[in-house]
């Protein structure tokens, strides 16, 4: 159980004093449409903060040691696109299972940085499929195929008046 003002780093699982972590420095997290520093700390300690109304309960952060050792990358909330969810305070690799091929894949910390701070995708949108399935054509189910065919204009012969 975390003590007052302490939080467990999601990367290394060590308990650290939240107010002393560089990813929560006031000048670093001050975003006009984002949560206050106190709301972020409350979100970490409670698993989400109903007062701020974040749609994503989990606050993505890492301690200074993990950032210094390269296990995580310091994020820049001012460079991110987000609405009613927690911005990223640090990026670290996360593993998922692709629902299409059922292969486990990694959403790498560098890919997250690129996706959210360089390409400016909304932070609440994570990749759902592995790279192989994302780059392949979508599966055409019979129902989807019928719907596409129904949207096509009917064929006409050139001799009609």
From TrEMBL:
It comes from the Bacteria. This is Uncharacterized protein. It comes from Aeoliella mucimassa.
């Amino acid at each position: 159980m975390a003590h007052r003002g302490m939080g467990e780093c999601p990367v290394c699982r060590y308990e650290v004093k939240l107010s002393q972590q560089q990813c929560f420095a006031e000048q670093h997290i001050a975003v006009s449409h984002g949560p206050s520093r106190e709301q972020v700390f409350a979100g970490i300690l409670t698993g989400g903060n109903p007062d701020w109304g974040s749609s994503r309960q989990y606050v993505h952060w890492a301690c200074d040691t993990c950032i210094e050792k390269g296990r995580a990358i310091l994020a820049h909330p001012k460079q991110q696109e987000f609405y009613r969810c927690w911005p990223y305070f640090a990026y670290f690799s996360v593993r998922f299972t692709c629902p299409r091929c059922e292969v486990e894949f990694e959403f790498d910390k560098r890919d997250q940085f690129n996706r959210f701070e360089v390409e400016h995708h909304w932070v609440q949108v994570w990749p759902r499929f592995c790279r192989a399935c994302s780059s392949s054509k979508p599966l055409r189910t019979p129902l989807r195929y019928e719907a596409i065919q129904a949207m096509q204009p009917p064929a006409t012969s050139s001799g009609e008046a």
